[in-house]
Structures are given as C-alpha cells and as structure tokens.
Amino acid sequence: MIKNKTKMTVLVVGASGATGRHLVNQLLLKENKVKIIVRSKENLPKPWNEAKNLEIITASLLELNDNELINYTSNCDAIASCLGHNLTFKGIYGQPKKLVTDATKRLCQAIIANKPKNPVKFVLMNSSGVKNRDLNEPISYAQTCVIGLLRLLLPPHVDNEKAADYLRTQIGQNHKYIEWIAVRPDGLIDEEVVTPYESYPSPIRSAIFNAGKISRINVGHFMAELINDNKQWRKWQGQMPVVYSKTSIKP
Ligand SMILES: NC(=O)c1ccc[n+]([C@@H]2O[C@H](COP(=O)([O-])OP(=O)(O)OC[C@H]3O[C@@H](n4cnc5c(N)ncnc54)[C@H](OP(=O)(O)O)[C@@H]3O)[C@@H](O)[C@H]2O)c1
After folding, report:
1. What is the pLDDT of residues 223-240, one digit of tens each?
2. Ligand 1 atom closest to Cα of residue 43
3. Handedness of CA 112, 117, 119, 123 (dihedral sign)
4. Could you tell me the distance, in angstroms and rounded to a whole number, from the CA of residue 18 to the centre of ligand 1?
5. Is the beta carbon of 206 within 6 A of some atom in ligand 1?
6. 66-73 helix and 99-114 helix, angle to the nearest 10 degrees
C-alpha cells in the first residue's frame, strides 16, 4: 500500500499569534510540512512539541539577514504571514512600524533569490479595512474620513495597506516566482471549531460602521484551504478576498 505522501512545505510567520496558531494547526491537519519562525517557543501549543511535520525556528524575523531568509524560504511551496502588531503602546507606535510590509517584501525577495522551479504561493493576512485598489470598491464619505484618521493615528493600518500594495503593484499578477492572495478578515473573534464562512472579492458591509465577524480559526482554515486546494487558489490568486463567518453575513 502506498503511504500518504507529506504534502507541501509551508513557512508560517506570525505563527505564535492568535490566528497564526490556527493556521499552523490547519496545515498540520492537512499533512503539510510546516516551518515556523517565532521569537519565542514559550506559550506555543504543547502538542507542537511532538508534531512530526513541524519545524520550529527561533528568531526575530526582521533581524534575520538576507542569506538566512533565503535559506529558510528555500524548498517552500508556500509562505503565509499572520503577522500583526502587538496591541500594546510599543507594539502599535514603536519599531518596527513596517513589520508586515517589511516582512512581506523581504520574504518575497528571498523567494525571488531562490529562483524556484514553480511559483511560490504567498498568503498575507490583511484586513477588511484595507481597500483593494485594483477594484472600484466604493466606500462612504464618512468611512473615507475615518480611514484617513486611522492612517494618521494608527501606524499598523498604514502597514497593512502598504503590505497589500506591495503585492498588488510590485509582485503584480504575472510574477515568474510568486503568486499571492491577501486575505481580508472582518472583525476577528475567537471560536474553538471551524464553522461555515463565506468569501467575497470586496467587502459586503462597512468595515468601520457595520463590521461583520470571522473567527480566527475560520481565517486559519481559509488560508490553509487556499494553499492546499488549487481550485480555490486559482479562484482567488492575485486578489484580496474578504471573509465573514456565515452567522454574521446579514447586514
Ligand atoms: N482585530 C481584528 O478584528 C482584525 C481584523 C482584521 C484583520 N486584522 C489583522 O490581523 C492581524 C493578526 O491578528 P491576530 O489577532 O492573529 O494577531 P496577534 O495574536 O497579535 O499575532 C501577531 C503575531 O505577530 C507577531 N509579531 C508581532 N510583532 C512582531 C515583531 N516585531 N517581530 C516578529 N513577529 C512579531 C507576534 O509574535 P509574538 O508572539 O512573538 O509577539 C504574533 O505571532 C492583526 O494584527 C491585524 O492586522 C485584525
């Protein structure tokens, strides 16, 4: 009998976070080989110590040099980022202000340096508050004003915008080495199990005045599905799907 082969190799950054850990679990459930780069092994889920398909690299991502990043990304079929600024004063206003953008850029540059035979899938966890400027996504005047304020007051919002813009404009739709999807969750909540959810090319409700909900485990499930299911990948490649748990879809 032929044994199930281990599937793709996926590097996850932001894996210690509230969403990242769900993504890692979902990838392991799908028998992917998973590498994670975390600042600390403390507080990681206990079962990860025994997970045979999980490699834990302890390092501060943006402090790795180019050669180290090239090495860690080589042989990866996909890379996923669930990075986000810690919700403390230092996390929001301190360095690195461009955590998500710089990580996205440097990981993409490492992929390019590796000249992979097949394009590597890059999945970025972004936010429904970020517009896909490739599409004409209408938002109200009031929301435009609030987003303008967020840009001034909340560096992490600008960081999320710039990270998505980098993929959209610098990597683009026909890159030789990288294919990408930027997942835009609406309001994140915590739940224990995967529940029905839906994805849309653009928000179907105001991310500011009438936000819906999506559980972090559903976001992890969606990102893992995208990586593993080629039909899903082709459907959303080069786009910025917005995801809602089904119970919260009705405005
Ligand atoms: N809250 C919402 O409703 C909402 C909605 C849509 C989108 N989002 C976006 O989704 C992101 C992820 O959400 P979450 O709740 O899963 O975030 P989270 O639990 O805060 O996780 C953030 C991850 O980023 C890592 N990180 C933070 N600063 C870092 C640094 N300087 N260097 C390396 N790694 C660093 C953290 O690592 P450590 O464990 O080492 O700190 C952690 O793994 C948010 O930040 C936001 O941009 C949020």
Report:
1. 999 999 999 999 999 999
2. 39
3. negative
4. 7
5. no
6. 70
